[in-house]
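Ticket #4471: structure output looks truncated?

Reporter: J.K.
Steps to reproduce: submitted the chain below (106 residues) through the standard prediction queue, then opened the result file.
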Amino acid sequence: MLVAERIIQLRTRKGYSTNKLAQLAEIGQSTLREIEIGKKSPNIVTLEKICQALDISLAEFFSEDHVNAVTHDNMAELPEHVKKEIALIKEFILYKHNLQKPTADK
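Returned output as attached by the reporter:
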């Protein structure tokens, strides 16, 4: 996985916007955006700041075992926007298989 993809993955998992992560890492929002779109590569100091803002070590950032399984037990830890997407997917699948009628628009 590319550095940019990993940053986006971790930022999204935390529920942070680009602006929030940039503020927490004490780097410019434009710098972070350029890193995320692959226009720039972060130097080690910048990457360390990003990792600190995400509350992980550099070793965890580069760990191959970074995919966390989502289980029923840790669903509460997911960001709110992810929980909403999962609920919509669940509703769609149940509707598709005639196990549930669609709910009213939200």
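Triage note (M.O.): checked the attachment and the full token line is present. The mean pLDDT is 85.
Status: closed, working as intended.
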